[in-house]
Design brief:
Blueprint: H1 2-12, H2 15-18, H3 24-45, H4 49-65, H5 67-87, H6 92-121, H7 173-195, H8 200-207
Helix pairs in contact: 3-4, 3-5, 4-5, 4-6, 7-8
Length: about 210
């Protein structure tokens, strides 16, 4: 529980969470993300009808609260399940059954809401025109938001990277930098994995 407490503090007060304090649905939905991840890990570890339904219920609550996080968690869970099946095929049938139950529950509970959402979204009154100024530009990969406490001291690398029309969501440099370091870390892990006999934890990290 000590590790869980520290992880909860780090997640709660991370910049990604604090920047969403003005969006109630994202605050609540973000709080449900660890619950969905925990239910998914329990289902992967001990696949059963109970764990599948538990994960399905948690995902339904998340999807009904914040569809953004539901879409992201669907990708995360998909990757985890694929890695689990590729790494260890024991009780694969039980895992697929649990996933199937969760999927049916999500479709039945969230499907009607999603259908209505997309129907309303096609209404002309809810259409939003594309604004080029707020779109992604190549210069955004060199831009840092002026309110970024970690990287705001960096020099401007492109003369077009600081227009007033841009928002924090257009500043792609931090994410681009994180992706680059993530790829570098992945290469290091794969290299170590090839040099010596890796532990189970290392192998799981390589898959993820």
């Amino acid at each position: 529980w000590q590790s869980a407490f520290v992880a909860a503090l780090m997640y709660t007060y991370s910049s990604v969470r604090l920047t969403q304090v003005v969006h109630f649905q994202l605050v609540v939905g973000g709080a449900l993300v660890p619950l969905v991840l925990l239910a998914a890990l329990q289902m992967l570890e001990l696949p059963s009808t109970k764990s599948g339904l538990t994960f399905g219920i948690a995902f339904v609550v998340l999807a009904a609260t914040a569809s953004y996080y539901a879409a992201m968690m669907a990708i995360v869970v998909g990757v985890l399940c694929l890695c689990r099946l590729l790494r260890d095929r024991r009780d694969a049938r039980g895992l697929l059954v649990a996933l199937g139950l969760a999927g049916v529950l999500v479709v039945v509970a969230v499907g009607p809401i999603a259908f209505e959402y997309f129907r309303v979204h096609r209404d002309a009154h809810f259409q939003r025109e594309f604004i080029p100024a707020t779109g992604t530009h190549w210069s955004d990969y060199l831009a840092v938001d002026s309110g970024n406490y970690v990287e705001k001291h960096l020099p401007v690398l492109d003369s077009h990277s600081t227009p007033a029309a841009r928002t924090g969501e257009n500043r792609l440099f931090p994410g681009f930098l994180a992706a680059a370091f993530g790829a570098l870390g992945f290469a290091v892990i794969v290299r170590r994995y090839g040099r010596k006999r890796a532990t189970v934890r290392t192998r799981e990290l390589v898959w993820i």
